[in-house]
Amino acid sequence: MRMPKLFAALMSICAAAVFLSSHAAAGADDRVYVDISSPGVKRLPIAIQEFTGHQDGADMSEIVQDDLAWTGLFSFTDRAAHLETSDRPFDAENWKPLGVEIVAKGTLQLSPEGGYTALVSLYDVFAAENIMKKRYSAEKGLLRLMSHKIAGDIYERITGGKGIFSSRIAYLTSEGGGTALYVSDWDGRRPNRLLKKNDLMTAPHWSPDGRRLAYSAVKQGKWGVYILNLDDMKEEVVLSTGKTDISGDFTPDGKYLLISSSKKGTPDIYLMHIATKVLTRLTYSDYIEISSTVSPDGKNIAFVSNRTGPPQVYIMGISDAEPRRLTYSGNYNTSPRWSPVGDRIAFSGIIDGRHQVFLIKPDGGALRQLTRTGNSEQPSFSPDGRCVVFESDREGAKGVYMIRADGEDVMRISPPGVKAFGPSWSP
Amino acid sequence: MKRFFVAVLFLALIAGCATDKKVTVPQDDQTKNISGEKDAGKDALGTDKNGRVSGRDDSLDKTGKAGQLTDEQIRIASRDIFRDVHFDYDRYEIKDADKAVLTTISEWMIAHKGARALIEGHCDDRGSNEYNLGLGDQRAQAVKNLLNTLGVTSDRMETVSYGEDKPLCTEQIETCWSSNRRAHFVLTK
Lengths: 427, 189
Fold this sequence. Notes:
The structure holds two protein chains of two kinds. By secondary structure, chain A is mainly beta. Chain A folds into two domains: 2-159, TolB, N-terminal domain (Rossmann fold), CATH 3.40.50; 168-425, Neuraminidase. Chain A has helices spanning 2-17, 57-70, 143-159, and strands spanning 19-23, 44-48, 74-76, 102-110, 116-124, 129-138, 168-175, 178-185, 192-197, 205-206, 212-219, 222-229, 234-239, 245-250, 256-261, 268-273, 278-281, 289-294, 300-305, 312-317, 324-325, 333-338, 345-351, 354-360, 368-369, 376-381, 387-392, 399-404, 410-412, 420-425. In chain A, strand 5 and strand 6 (129-138) form a beta hairpin. In chain A, helix 2 (57-70) packs across helix 3. Chain B is of the alpha+beta class. Chain B folds into two domains: 1-60, no CATH class; 68-189, CATH 3.30.1330.60. Chain B has helices spanning 2-17, 27-35, 71-80, 96-111, 129-149, 174-180, and strands at 85-86, 116-122, 157-163, 182-188. Chain B is globular. The chains are: A mainly beta, B alpha+beta. At the A-B interface, strand 18 of A face helix 5 and strand 3 of B.
């Protein structure tokens, strides 16, 4: 099992190596420059100058700019129009004529041990002052991770919110007659294969601490629910009834797993206490109940049921017994996933004969169609609830794509030429 | 079947013991009297012209010595007896048209006690992956339940759902979708 050990090693190096020491800039306040919660926000003009000092600096600032560009919150002036080169000290008078409001400068050096150190500064043009100054260190080979960390800090300083640039996407691929489980960076880069099985698997679910993945797999003609520990790459079968056992979400405290099992006849939703494997039954109908997702406050679940005919999405208090139907538009709605922010549920609904990703509020209001191309299924939210990753056949074979929750900009996540599906965004 | 052979033996004995009379009993009457069924078109073993065995007497186990099925028996039965059973879109009720197939399957299973069957539930690809796993599960269970009521014991049948993930064909047309909405049997000994 060479690959998973390498992955674990990389993760621990990463955790150890990408540390930062931050110095509070003199006179800095907690002013937020972009209100990300207000709709239709005007894009803030910012400049990410090319990092100087080492040839890899240009790649780093490129990654930082791409990360920030994806959020749709910023606009970038052409570097050729900049009046101040990246190696010159910041002078607000060089930026006011361009309408730029925030400027980032950075320097990169090789450390004596052969890794990188970077110093990144952020400036407020109107206030003509430094608002962030941070130092970063990383082992060689972790340039991308360090760049994502920098982008996240810049994003947080400007918006007050946590960026998604250090998050990861897990997804499945069809490989050699079986199924493989991959985890990549948030932008699809550095896909890493965690394991391969010789039969079917279902979409994985991340634990709230990002250290475990739960999924289902067929082994010798039987389904089972598995939990994979990413620290030691140990895999445990937590349920295998001999019937159809399919994994749902972890609860926000990480102690329980929502599961659908047909052990008692028809597939029902259960809550499993992971440590003891004790199952608590949540639904009791003679119909199919499957695909369960939990709200971020842990109080409610959404799931699919065909109790009124074709499948629809239902919501239920986790300790109630009475589900309430959520989806009334269209006659085939499945695959719900609750946003980590709590205010929306994404699901897949058939419209004009094809599956598309929709968003809806938990009270059933504000239904919005997000995708319009090909078939789009199995949505999963980014940790900030502002993007959705999904599987789609828009380019032929199934692939994993990402779209912003405002409906703009689609980016391909999985490599071309690979049949990829069942994506799940990390916390 | 046993009774038939005993009867034949008995009659043969009588025929053998009779000194000057030959007793011949017509085949049709033999079948009628012994089994009580009017199975026209079947030969003495109750096998019809298609080579299928029917009849209610399950005391004659056809698995031969030590209850072992041969690979050849499995191959032939898989091809001829254990046909796919089909379902309507988003449904898992057994259709009337398939009840004859399932009856034949149950009779074969009863007559071959060493056999075990894995019943796979499948769907067409128009639904969503996980819901289709639930649907395939219910299709396989519906078949198992019906076979159970027809006399096949539960311990001899397993079910598994493959949802839409193991299709027979991938064309986006109704004939392909219908053939994918199926329960499929895998016979083992």
